[in-house]
């Protein structure tokens, strides 16, 4: 069959990620709120508290920033990975990891400003009214950070965001591709929705585990007020006060969010590839 032979266009990953972000945004907001609190509210306690105090639409606070983040971060990393296949051999797992790491590096840098605004807009829900930043949307947030805090502030948390982007892209894309190859090599799987679902679930689990400590540090760094932390090591020490598990704070909602996000992204991506991809000449 010709359809499975089709190649994804460089921007398909960004489109698929935007679609997934719309579905999983409430889970991402809960994850960010758990990571930035110093208290010990559980998911079961936090959800009704937010809904009761601010209404059900609070779970879509910052959606525009989440979509902008995927348009920059995911479009860059998926695009570099797809385009890089013409220059890097990906017939081995090592090749896939190398290309995915480079793609994550680019995506992490490009996506940092939108990621920071996304974190801030989501975290507004737990701040007292007088302390909220109240960005109108993602673009308004970018301009206000630039005007009020300077250009460099747009890349606050870039070190951890980039490191996380590298690990995330390896966990998601490289492991998805490799898992899919292993599954298709058995007589039980074919290039269909079941295989795409299974491979993306494995990739989502691995990506969550690899990135959670950096995700916690990135979120705290981006959400910090100017001067709150002396540097990345200060963020590490502050988080360490919560114990080793502090670096995995919000793991369950992170997995609950990233698992479906990864699955939806790759299901959308595969459908875009099969129906609108380019046919090799």
From TrEMBL:
List the membrane topology term(s): Multi-pass membrane protein
Q: Which Pfam families match?
A: Mito_carr
Main location, first listed in the record: membrane
The protein's matches in InterPro entries, at most eight in alphabetical order, are given as: MCP_dom_sf, MCP_transmembrane, Mito_Metabolite_Transporter
Q: Which domain of life is it from?
A: Eukaryota
Q: Does the keyword Repressor apply?
A: no
GO cellular component, alphabetical, reads: membrane
List locations, semicolon-separated: Membrane
Question: Solcar repeats at which positions?
Answer: 8-87, 95-182, 191-275
Swiss-Prot/TrEMBL keywords:
Membrane, Repeat, Transmembrane, Transmembrane helix, Transport
**Family affiliation:** Belongs to the mitochondrial carrier (TC 2.A.29) family.
Protein name, per record = Mitochondrial dicarboxylate carrier
The species this protein belongs to is Drosophila gunungcola (fruit fly)
Please spell out the taxonomic lineage of the organism that makes this protein: Eukaryota, Metazoa, Ecdysozoa, Arthropoda, Hexapoda
């Amino acid at each position: 069959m010709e359809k499975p032979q089709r190649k994804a266009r460089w921007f398909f990953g960004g489109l698929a990620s935007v679609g997934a972000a719309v579905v999983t945004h409430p889970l991402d907001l809960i994850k960010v709120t758990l990571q930035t609190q110093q208290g010990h509210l559980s998911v079961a306690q936090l959800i009704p508290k937010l809904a009761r105090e601010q209404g059900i639409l609070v779970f879509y606070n910052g959606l525009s920033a989440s979509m902008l983040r995927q348009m920059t971060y995911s479009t860059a990393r998926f695009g570099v990975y797809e385009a890089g296949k013409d220059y890097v051999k990906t017939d081995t797992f090592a090749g896939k990891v190398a290309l995915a790491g480079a793609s994550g590096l680019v995506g992490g840098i490009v996506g940092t400003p939108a990621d920071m605004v996304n974190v801030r807009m989501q975290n507004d829900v737990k701040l007292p009214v007088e302390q909220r930043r109240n960005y109108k949307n993602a673009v308004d947030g970018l301009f206000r950070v630039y005007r009020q805090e300077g250009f460099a502030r747009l890349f606050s948390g870039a070190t951890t965001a980039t490191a996380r982007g590298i690990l995330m892209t390896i966990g998601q894309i490289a492991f998805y591709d490799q898992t899919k190859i292993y599954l298709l090599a058995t007589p039980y799987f074919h290039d269909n929705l079941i295989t795409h679902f299974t491979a993306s679930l494995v990739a989502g689990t691995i990506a969550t585990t690899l990135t959670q400590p950096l995700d916690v540090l990135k979120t705290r760094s981006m959400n910090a007020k100017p001067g709150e932390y002396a540097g990345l090591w200060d963020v590490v020490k502050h988080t360490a006060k919560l114990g080793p598990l502090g670096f995995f704070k919000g793991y369950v909602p992170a997995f609950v969010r990233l698992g479906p996000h990864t699955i939806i992204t790759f299901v959308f991506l595969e459908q875009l590839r099969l129906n609108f991809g380019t046919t090799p000449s």
